[in-house]
Each structure stands twice: as C-alpha cells, then as structure tokens.
Amino acid sequence: MRLAYLIGLIVTVWTGTASSLDVEEYKRLEGTGERVLRILSTGDLALFSPFLASFHARNPQISIEYSVVSSGELHRAIRDGANVDVAISSAMDLQFQLVNDGLAKSYRSAQTASLPDWARWRDQIFAFTAEPAVVVISAERFQGLPIPETRQEVISVLRDNPDRFKGAIGTYDVRDSGLGYLFATQEARSTDAYWRLSEVLGRLAPRLYCCSGQMIEDVANGQLALAYNVLGSYAAEQAANETSGRVQILRMQDFSNVILRTAIIPATAQNIAAAGAFVDGLIAAGQGNRPGSWALPLLDHTPETTSPGFGPIRLGPALMIYLDPLNKRAFLEEWENAMVQRQTP
Amino acid sequence: MIATTSLGRKLTLLLAGVAALLSVLSWSMVTGLARQAAERTQDNVLSASVTTIAETLRTEQGEVRLELPYSAFSMLGAISQDRVFYKVVAGSRLLTGYADLQVPSGYGPDQGPGRVRFATGSYLGEDIRMASLTRFVQAGNSPVPVTVTVAQTRYGIGAITSDLSRHAAGLSIAFFLVAAGLTSLVARASLRPLKTITADVARRGPADLSPLHHKAPAELAPLLDALNRLMVRLGQSIRRSEDFIAEAAHRVRTPLATVRVQAEILLRATTGDAERQRLRQMIRAVDESSRSAGQLLDHATVVYRAEALARDPVDLGEVARQCAHALEPTAAMRDIALRIETQRAIVRGDPILIDNALRNILDNAIKYSPDDTTVTVRVLKDVETVRVSVTDQGPGLGNGAVEHLTERFRRGCNVEGIVGSGLGLTIAEAAIQAHGGRLELGKGPEGQGACVSLILSA
What we know:
The complex is a heterodimer of chains A (about 350) and B (about 450).
Chain A: H1 2-12, E1 25-29, E2 36-41, H2 45-58, E3 63-68, H3 71-79, E4 86-89, H4 92-100, H5 110-113, E5 120-121, E6 125-138, H6 151-160, H7 162-165, E7 169-172, H8 178-190, H9 193-203, E8 207-209, H10 212-220, E9 226-231, H11 232-241, E10 247-250, E11 258-264, H12 272-286, H13 303-306, H14 325-339
Parallel strand pairs in A: 2-3, 2-4, 7-8, 7-9
Antiparallel strand pairs in A: 1-3, 4-11, 5-6, 6-9, 6-10, 6-11
Chain B: H1 7-54, E1 58-60, E2 63-65, H2 70-79, E3 84-90, E4 93-97, E5 117-123, E6 126-139, E7 142-153, H3 155-203, H4 221-269, H5 273-307, E8 312-315, H6 316-333, E9 337-341, E10 346-349, H7 351-368, E11 374-381, E12 385-391, H8 424-434, E13 438-443, E14 450-457
Parallel strand pairs in B: 9-11
Antiparallel strand pairs in B: 1-2, 3-4, 3-7, 5-6, 6-7, 8-10, 11-12, 12-14, 13-14
Catalytic activity (chain B): ATP + protein L-histidine = ADP + protein N-phospho-L-histidine
GO cellular component, one term (chain B): plasma membrane
Subcellular location (chain B): Membrane
C-alpha cells in the first residue's frame, strides 16, 4: 500500500498545490487579507457553497480555496504532506487512519469541547454531520411493486423481477470509492444480508459508480431503478430539487449505516488559526447553529434515538481493520466474486 | 525561668509533620498503584487483541494467511483514545502492518512462543506499549515463526493516572487535615497530667510542704518523686532553722533577765540623773530584746505545734478571760481598762496556740493604746463561726495596706517610739491559720482605733 503511494508521489511530482490532484470541483473566495485557507474536501460544492459563503461573510479577510476530490485522493494527498489546512471527508476510516498515524494536529476550542465524546477523537478529528446510507428508487420504475423496507424485501423484489431490474441497479464501486468501501465493510460486518444482497445484485448486472451524486442523477433521469447505499445528504438534496417525486428515498429498517463526516487539520497545515475557525464553524453548523447556510444533515447529539438501535459508525482504531492490505484484498476478492464475476453470465 | 518552645506545640508540629509525610507517601503510593493498574489494564487488552489476531493465522496453499478481526482493534478503542499500530512478520517477511515499527526480538526467561510478551518503546515520536505473540505456522515444509505485534500509545494511562492522582491528592489533603486536628487534641490530652500537677502545686499554701499524691504517667513519676523529695528536704531545712531560732532565743532570754534584774538594782542604788537616765534606756533595750526573743520563741512554738495540731475542745471564752487576766497588770500600769464580754464558745484546737494568738493580739492592743483608754475583748458566737475581737482606742492600723501587717517583722507606719518586734500579728495569724481560721484587721467602731478579730469555725 505504501509502495503505491510512493509510486504515486513520484509519478505526480507533487508541488504542494491542488493542481496536481484530480480535482473534481474548485472554488476560490477572495478575501481582503493575505491568508489563504486551503480546504480539501469530498463534499460537493452544491452542498458546501452556502456554508462557504456564510463563513466568508463572517471572516472576510480570509481567502478560501475549496477543492473537491475523491476520498482516496484526499487520503493520499494528506499522506504525502500536501499544503492543506483543513481536510474534510466522509470516508471515516481513511480520515481516522491519518489521525492514528500522526498526520493531524490537535485543536481545542469551546466548539470542539461541545462535541459529544463519540464525535471526536483525541481532539484531532471532529465529526460535524451524521449521515445515513439510504436506498434511492425511481418511483416510475417501481410502479406496481411493493416498496421494500428491509434488505430481505429488497432481495425479494429484485429476485422476483429480474427482467425489470437487469442493468438498472446502481451501487458504489468499492474498489474506487472510499466511502463505498466503508459502507460495504461496515454492512458486511453488521448484517449477513449484505452478501446475499450482493449475490442478487451481481446477477442483475449492476452499474458501478464512484459517487453518490451521479447515482442519484441516474435514478432521477430514469436510467436506474434503484441505487443502493447512497449518501442520504445527496439524495435529500436531489429530492428537494425534484418536484416530480420521481426520486424516492428509502431508509432500510433492518439496519442502516450512519457515517460521520469528519474534518481534520493536517499536521502540515500552514494557516492554523483560520483552519481552527473553519472547523469551529463546521461544528457549529453541524449542531444547527447556522441555519440557512447548512445543506447537510445535523450531527444529532443522541444518535440512539434517531432510528432504532443504529448509532453512527464509531470513531476508533477498529476503523483501520478493513484498511489493512490483507483484509482489503480478501474483502475485495469476495466482493468481486459476488458483484463483478456474475455481471457477464 | 526561661520558657522555650511550648511542649504542646512541639508535639503538635512533630505529629503534624509525621501526618504530612504519611499523606505524601500515601498519595505517591496511590499514584504509583493507579499507574500500575492502568498499565496492567492496557497490557491485558493488548494481550487479548494480539491473541485474537494470532488465532486467525492459518496456511492456504503453503502461504501464511491471516485476517485482522474487527474486535481486535475495537477492544483497543473501547478503553482509551490511544493510537494503534501493528505489525505481522512471518519469518523475516512483513505480512502486514507498520513496517518501521521496531519490535524487540527474542524472548525473556519465562517467555517463549505461544506466550504474549510486552515491551515499551517509541514510534513516530510517541511512547508506546507493545504486545507480541509468536506462533509457528506450517508453511510448505517447515514451520515458520509468525510474530503478531500490536502497539498502543500511552495517553490513556497518563490520563487515568493523573485523574486518580488528583483524587488521591484530595484525599491525602483531607487525611492530613483530619490528622493535624487530631494531633493537637492528642498533644493536649497527653500534656493534661502535667497541667494537673502544675495547678496542684500552684494552688498550695506557702507552708504546705506535704508530698504530692498523684497518679502520674510513668514519664512524670520521676519528676513528681523529685518534687516530693525536694519538699521533704525543704521542710527539714525550715524546721532546722526554726529550731535554731528557738534555741537562740531561749539562750538569749535567760541572760537578759539577769542583766535586767542587775540593772534594776543598779537603778535603785543610783542617784545621779544622767546615770539613771542611761540605766532606764538600758532596761528598755533589754526589755525590747527579751520581748523579741520571747516572740521568736512563740513563733517557733506555733510553727512546731501547727505541724501536728491537737484537736482538743477549747472554750474560747475561758481562754479570752485568762488571757486578759494575765495582761491585767501590764494594762493597769498605764491605766488602761480591759473590758471583757465573753461567753462560752467551744472550738476544736490547741489551747496553747489559741492562747498564744490571743495574747499577742491583746498585747499589741495594750501596747499601742494611749494611757487611760479602754481595750475591749469580745467573744461572739455564730452558727458556724466563733469570733474573738479585740478593739482598742489607739491610733488604728494606719492608712497603709493592712494585709502586709501580718508579715514577719512588718510594723505599721504610725508606731514610732513604741517598742515592738513586728512578730505579734505574724504569730497570731500563723496560729489561727493552723486551725483553718483567719485573722481580720479593721477599724474599731466609729472608725476609731483598731479592731483585730480571730475567726474560727465552731
């Protein structure tokens, strides 16, 4: 794994700016002062723009550079010592590993102290949203079928209607997407229905995606009937834009992953004061103190009550288990066996 | 006497010092134990984690395989927020984990394959605790030693230790405060016998030299003994000097009587005025000396008899009458009338001493009265006390402090020209005090003259 990073480093010839990254979206807000706050994030601009604008209004002297990258890219960049002041990612495991390996700075403030214990670790990683994984379906394509509420029901409805769903199921390509891998491993650990469902999906020639946004788009435009394990925040935003009611969000009742979107201040951060202020802003917004500028779910302080029995994935060293190369290889093998091999029967 | 630091304070300080020392000791012990306990907990969890991982070791087609179980790390995260590092090495080949984690190789004396061994080291600039377990796995033809190591930083231990240490410090301070409070109580309690004895000695009358009978703690018994012995010696010494004075007085009195008789004879035989005048002066001086000697003897008698006081019934009325009778001639010489108002009043005591006391008072009264006046002796009886008062019409006791008049050789300030030794009231008071009574000095009726009263319990 480390060797791969090294090769990546040599190939990309890191220059310390975001330019050599595979940046999906980029936004710069010009400030009145000299300082530039460099943010690397997996969160789409559509979701974060209102918050960025509000933060910029509060701190007009700070210039903000906001780059959207994939979680794997982000992880690699921080590991290689990129010039980044705040790293935001929904891939908790990768973020946690950065902290565990000593690549994050400690930061303490009244805001971080207001976080519950489960939403921070060692004052180095801070959760500011709790976002469930959901199933998104196209109401159109599901016409006449019962709406499934559990994985077992999803399995049944897919198995009973192979023709209708063949090639119309979308899910993360866990080989590419850090978040997809996190969802898959946590689900495999928590419910035995995961592998059965993967088998069923594999037989239906699933389409594999890198990101939630595209999956939801494809559900909205009718290309997909069902997208499995989509980040709820994106789905909710999409659904809000849709007035036709074609996109329907389902939260599985048997089990549902809740991930914490987290921020860290990398050890190489230059602009620590601004980074701290930004993290404070995220935490305040995540606790509902910045209404109007927040398009993401809130960090609920009592996760036990949000839905029966399903707390967020715990921030802790156990997150690193599936990042172990041996474990990852074993998991991906099994996943490919279930998902990809059957794609072409 | 120079008072150095108070014994009680010294004791309190000493005990408080001991309590402080114990508090600090107990605090450091608790802190040490807390750290040990926290370290042991971490070792146990690390041991469980490494064992869980080692249990997944297996071979597949000659290859060593393992999978890290989720629980192996989640248990590490359950106790503290410590960073986790791990490494699995088969033979000399890294299977997975942090390649640059330095694991001490080799086994201790009581360790071997299959046993978890612990080591402390550092990684990425942090202190870490490592647990390693080696298992032999059959790979190909030969068994390969596979070592699983799980390491954790030690922030949690520090946090737990400092937390417990803070609690222990609070408890130690509370313990010290309680101990210091008790200490001053203990010091006071252990010094109480000393205080009792001191108070007892201080309360004693000037002539009380009887031994102290106290239950004293072992440490104070020698002091008490020494004190008693000193008092015995003091008593003996006083008695010896009294004896000496009595003896001296006695020896002086007899030759003085002879000198006086001879001087009287010479006075009658002499006709020259100047010679007669000188002889009279001589007689007066002899009288004065004789009287002083007599009073010294009286005083010695009082002291001697008071030591082993007789308790016979004595009629004070009778004593007063006899006393007046005996001094009648002296009074008559100066035309002083003695009026006696007595009644029967029985007290218990030594008749000689009481007579002595009364005679001295009466003698004083006659001596200080001007010619042609009256001295009254009254015996009054009460329910509890008997009072014998002698009232004269003389100049009184003067305006000085009357209580000093009973001291030895102390005379009033208005007695110029009258022969006196200053022992009369001293003798009277000593005799009366030996009986448990007291002497009252005051003015006569209508503020004229002096009134001296003997008061004894009936």
